[in-house]
């Protein structure tokens, strides 16, 4: 999570992050995780697993959705660094961080 926190501090005026918890953890456990890791962007808890049904399996997964709402890239697996986030954001969203 530190790579997302650092990325968001630099990119929050250019892109929007949204977190969705789809794990089997309770809403309270999800809230504690968000607070522990300093995730200050909007985060939601999906009680019915609607996002998993719509977007498919793969946790962790990072979706890159352009300003028209189109999914332009899906990264299944761990984002390993802030540099990787910056590179993917530039490549798929055309946003320079």
From TrEMBL:
InterPro entries: AhpC/TSA, Thioredoxin-like_sf, Thioredoxin_ResA/DsbE_sf. Its main location: other. The keyword Disulfide bond applies. Residues 1-72 form the Alkyl hydroperoxide reductase subunit C/ Thiol specific antioxidant domain. The keyword Disulfide bond applies. One of its GO terms (biological process) is cytochrome complex assembly. Gene3D superfamilies: Glutaredoxin (3.40.30.10). Keywords: Cytochrome c-type biogenesis, Disulfide bond, Redox-active center. It is found in: Cell envelope. One of its GO terms (cellular component) is cell envelope. GO terms for molecular function: antioxidant activity; oxidoreductase activity. This is Unannotated protein. It comes from freshwater metagenome.
């Amino acid at each position: 999570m530190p790579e997302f926190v650092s990325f968001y501090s630099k990119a929050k005026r250019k892109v929007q992050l949204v977190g969705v918890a789809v794990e089997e953890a309770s809403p309270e456990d999800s809230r504690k995780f968000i607070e522990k890791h300093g995730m200050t962007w909007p985060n939601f808890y999906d009680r019915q697993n609607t996002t998993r049904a719509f977007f498919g399996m793969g946790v962790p997964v990072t979706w890159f959705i352009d300003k028209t709402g189109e999914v332009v890239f899906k990264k299944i697996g761990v984002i390993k660094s802030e540099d990787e986030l910056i590179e993917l954001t530039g490549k798929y969203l055309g946003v320079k961080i």
